[in-house]
Amino acid sequence: MQRALSTHLFANHRLTTVWLERIWNAGIPLVEIFCARQHLDYRDKAQITELGHWFRDAELKLHSLHSPMYTDDVWGRTGPNSIITITEPVKSKRLDTVDEIKRALEIAETVPFRYLIQHLGVAWEEYDERKIDYAFSALEEINLFARQRGVEVLLENTPNELATAERLSMFLDVTHLNVNVCFDVGHAHMRGSIENEYSLLKPRIRSTHVHDNNGADDSHLFPNSGGTVDWRRTMDLLRLGSGQYPLLLELREVADMQHPVESARATFEYLEGLRSLDENHDR
Known about the structure:
The chain has an 8-stranded parallel β-sheet. By secondary structure, the chain is of the alpha/beta class. Helix content is 39%, strand content 13%. The two termini are 23 Å apart. The longest helix is centred in the middle third of the chain and has 19 residues, at 129-147. The chain is globular, with a radius of gyration of 18 Å. The protein has one domain: TIM Barrel, CATH 3.20.20.
C-alpha cells in the first residue's frame, strides 16, 4: 500500500512548501491537504499560486483535498454560522455551503488532485430523512463541479447517525450518486466494529483515514500510542484492498512532538511491519 499523509497533523500552522518537502523527504509520496483556513486558505490566491508552482516541479503528489468544515480560521469557534455542512436545512445557507466547497475545489485548476473528501453532516448529528434530500441536492452540484475539474468526491464515514457505513451505503443506493468512499478507521472503531464497517463499504473505498482512539473520542491519535484499535487485525483488513487505496494517516498534532513528519514515517514502518496472526503461526 502506498504511504500518504494528511496535513491535518499540522493544521494549526500555515501550510508552506517547507512542510511539503519534509513529507517527501520522509519517504511519503502522497499528501492530502486539509482545508482549514488557518492552514490552507483556499481564498488566498497567493498561497494557492505558491503551492501550484511548487507542485509543478515536485515528485510529491497531491492525492486529495479534505473539504472545508468551517469558514473561519479557529475551528468554528466564531459561532454556528461558521459551520460548513451539506445537510443545512435552509436552502440559502446550503447554497452558501456549496459555494464555499466550490471555492476549495477550484484549487484543482492550479494544483490537480484526484479526490475531495467530503463529510455528510457534522459530528454527532442525528438522523433525519429530510437531510438525505438536503445532502443529495448539495452533492449533485458539488459532484458535477468537481468532475469538471478532474476530481472525484469521496464521502467519509463520520461519527454521526447520517454517515455510518450502513447509512452511507443506503444513501448512495437510494440517490444513485456516482460517488465512492473514504474509509476512516478511527471513526469505524467508534462504531464498535472496524470489520463490519469495512465490509459494508469495501467495494466503494478509494482512500483511507488511519488514526487511533479509545472507541469513544475522535482523538486522531498515532496508532499504538494509547488508543484501542487492534492494528494487526486492521492492517489485515486494509491489505485486502491493496492497490485500491493508499494507507493515509490523518493524525492530530501532539504538543511536545518535535518532528511530527518523522513520527508519521515511523508509524508507517510500524503498521507495515505488522503481520497477521495466521502468518506468524505458519512461520
